[in-house]
Structure formats: structure tokens, C-alpha cells
Amino acid sequence: MAFVMVARQALLQLKSSTSVKACVKECKHDNSNSNVVQLPEKTRNSSVLVLGGTGRVGGSTATALSKFCPDLRIVIGGRNREKGAAMVGQLGRNSEFTEVNIENVDSLGAALKDVDLVVHAAGPFQQAAKCTVLEAAIETKTAYVDVCDDTSYALRAKSFKDKALAANIPAITTGGIYPGVSNVMAAELVRAAKTESKGKPERLRNLPEVRSAHDVLGIPTVSARFGTAPFFWNWGMLAMTNLLSPEFLKDRTKVQQMVKLFDPLVRAVDGIAGERVSLRVDLECTDGRNTLGLFSHRKLSVSVGNATAAFALAVLEGSTQPGVWFPEEPEGIAIEARELLLNRATEGTINFIMNKPPWMVETDPKELGLGIYV
């Protein structure tokens, strides 16, 4: 299973290295319309360092932050000055580039100086032996968000909870699209079920974040499925697990080289087939109640930036308590802040549905009147 997750991460890098309550909302956003965020006065002109800001995920996050909150000072952190200059040119005012090596403590310390929040998007997180960026953030008293999708790394990050508490630093791990937004969707489904249903939440399906959902939300059975389109990318992921040795897949340098090798092909295919992304979270309760959440966006490269930016803004707004938290923990994203986070994360979606029975999504229901559907 671990080898499959490593292969999944490699494939994801290729693809993305790039008062109504949220739990009862169905919405379709207009991509051309962006909601400008008014941060609290004390954080309105905050400085945000995006590590991996010249990559697809980090670059998308920086773009989304600049769009949501033009007053933010965006610092692009990376190793390539040429790519950094190009990214700064796209962002325009209130942005700059800083050269940083995340494996070097002194380099990290210099980059974090005078920064209010660091967004760690410089993966891959698989096989990373240390949480160097989080440690540096705690040392410099800098708020922290990462887009980690590796269970071992996330649990290692959680082990720094007491140190973050002592430093009075809020930190979120797994704060991207999936894991991240999917965690919050699951938490809202569970919260609604506990409020509206006599049965107990029993089973979560289609959720990539099985460990944290099981531990934090208290769901006995959590399953995960992963796929991508076009279909042959799934063949590619399966082929990697069968043809490449475990040693190869555990070698971060070799995986990154493979990502660079296939990146032109992926971009070409995305240009033809598109890069639509969809998330679906299903919740089953002991009384037979079944509900789901559905998220669809035409562009993964855009949606992952919106999602990560939504977590960053939540931290700046004070919705995260000191410590290291998963997104579904109320200390990570306060329950009352989830609706706003989902509103921002779903900017530009073609479909976003929460807390609906599966039959309303899988078929085209017609209302007969008086709330009766067939």
C-alpha cells in the first residue's frame, strides 16, 4: 500500500505540480468572479512565504492568494531565480522572490525572517526524514500551512504540537485540496449527521485521508479510492507500482527526475483532455442515512491553489489555534470558519454539493411539489 501511495504522489506531481450552512449548500461559481478578502487590520498587510512557489502547486497557491487578497505581500521561495522572476512578473506588485534551500537550516531561517506565514508546497513529502520547514517556522514563530499528503510526514508534523503551543504558533498539516478540503467536507458531513440523524456515523467512503478521519472524526470504517482522467494515467500509476522497484519509488531524487521527464507530456495531454478534478465523500450512518459531498472543478491547477490559499487565509484570520492540527480538527479550522473556507476553496467550481443523499446526485430528480422528488 505504501508503494501505491508513493506512485500516487508521483502521478499527482505530474498532474498538479501545478446564512446558509456549508453542510446544506449547493453552489456553482463563476470562474470570472473572485471574492476579494478583507483580512483583519492587523494582518491585512501580512507577508506570506510560499515555498515551492515556482512549482505548479505553489505557483497556483501564490496566484490565488494574490487574487483573494491583493494587499498581501507574497514571497516566492525556490531555488531557480529565473523561474522565480517569471512568477513575480505574473503576480505583479507586492511580490518578490527569495532563493531558499529547504534542507538548509540557515537558508530557511533567512527566508522566514519578517514573514508572518509560510506555506510549504515544496514536495514531495514522501520519504522526508524531518519536518525542517515546520521546525524552522516554530523556531522563528511563523505560522505554518503545508500541503502534505503523506501519512508518516503528517503524523511526524503532529508530534511538534507541544512545541508549536509553547511558541504560540498555529500550524496546519495536510492543508491542500485532498487531503485538506476533503477533510473539512467529511467533518461537515459528520457534524450534520450527528445533529440531524438518530443514527451514528459509521462509514466514510472515497476519502483519501483515512487515518486522520478515523482518529479525529471517530468513524469506525474509512476507505479511500484514487483515480484520475484520462484513464491511461491510472494505468501508468499501476505500471509504476509493478515495474519500478520499491527502492526507486522511495528515492526522492529519482522520483523528481521522473516528474521532470514526463512533465511536458502531461502538460500536452492536459491541453487536449483537460485537467478536471472531482472529490466525492460519502457518509453512511447506522440508521440507514446516507449523505455525500461533491466537489468538481475544470482545472486541478487552479483549484489546488484556491484550496491551499483558503487554509492560509483562515490561519491569518485567526481561525487556527496554536499547535499543529489536521484540517478537520476544530482547533485547526474552527467549526464556525468552515463555511467561509469552503466558499473560498470552491471558487470557480462547476459543482459543489454538500449533505445530499446519493440519489439526488446520481440521478436527475424532478420535483413534483411539496418537497416531493422522483
From TrEMBL:
Q: Taxonomically, which superkingdom?
A: Eukaryota
Which Gene3D superfamilies does the entry link to?
Answer: NAD(P)-binding Rossmann-like Domain
Saccharopine dehydrogenase NADP binding domain ranges (all copies): 48-167
PANTHER family attached to this UniProt entry: CARBOXYNORSPERMIDINE SYNTHASE (PTHR43796:SF2)
Question: What is the official name of this protein in its record?
Answer: Uncharacterized protein LOC105131014 isoform X2
Species of origin reads Populus euphratica (Euphrates poplar)
Its gene?
Answer: LOC105131014
